[in-house]
Amino acid sequence: MRNILLTLSYDGTNFCGWQRQDHADGKKSVRTVQEEIEKALEKLHGTHIALHGSGRTDSGVHAAAQAANFFSPIDSIPEKNYVQAINALLPRDIRIHDSKEVPQSFDSRFSATSRVYRYFLCCGQNPLANQMPYVWYIKKIPDLQKLNDMASVLKGEIDCASFAAAGDQSLSTNRYIENARFFETEGFPSGRLLVFEIEANAFLWKMVRTLTGTFIEFERDGKDRDFFLQVLNSKDRKAAGVTAPPQGLFLWQIKFDGIRRHV
Length: 263
Description:
The chain contains five helices and ten strands. The protein has helices spanning 33-45, 82-87, 144-151, 207-220, 225-234, and strands spanning 2-10, 52-53, 62-72, 94-102, 114-123, 136-138, 156-159, 174-185, 192-200, 249-255. Strands 1, 2, 3, 4, 5, 6, 7, 8, 9 and 10 form a ten-stranded mixed beta sheet that branches. It is globular, with a radius of gyration of 19 Å. It starts with a strand and ends in an 8-residue tail after the last strand.
């Protein structure tokens, strides 16, 4: 039995998130990334194979480099050949990019030391039609320095309760944030592409989208770093801003070589 680690991307537009949702109560099943890959693994192996992801993404959220592992009873497939074998059985909105054998003790979730998310905003000019599913369009071009002044507060061990969605079931709202920043990048022929990047050991439900929406709203309304810090310290979701829409958010990278923080 080999433990195989996959690196994969997906377009979250037509998925109800990463996690498989079993409906024993008779409700209509929904399409998820985990379930689609597990169906491909079952076709490849002739038996159900459980897939363990490094983290969950919500409906409409994308991934550039999600990590997931599974245990394969097949010894004859070279580790790199799982890429082609699984892709042949997957829909076009999921792609496997790398596969390698890892130690038996490896777990994509618990072995991860940090996760990196990027949120993409097209500012000032309407994005092209084919860009719309992957950005949040805002008419005003925000002040990059003011955004980064607020984002600089997010460093180290922080209680992020102000940015957790109602219904979050985490035992603790504390998270260790390695870095948070805004930057401009090229890539789209229309509008200015602004990126919010944040790296942490883990995230609360809708935390990145709430942070993004809060930064954009506060900058627009003339709020500053001190105001954002007050909202953070309030531990009150009602004090924060709007939740940004899901389509601009990408799970960008999973890191396994950093310091293991609490979950």
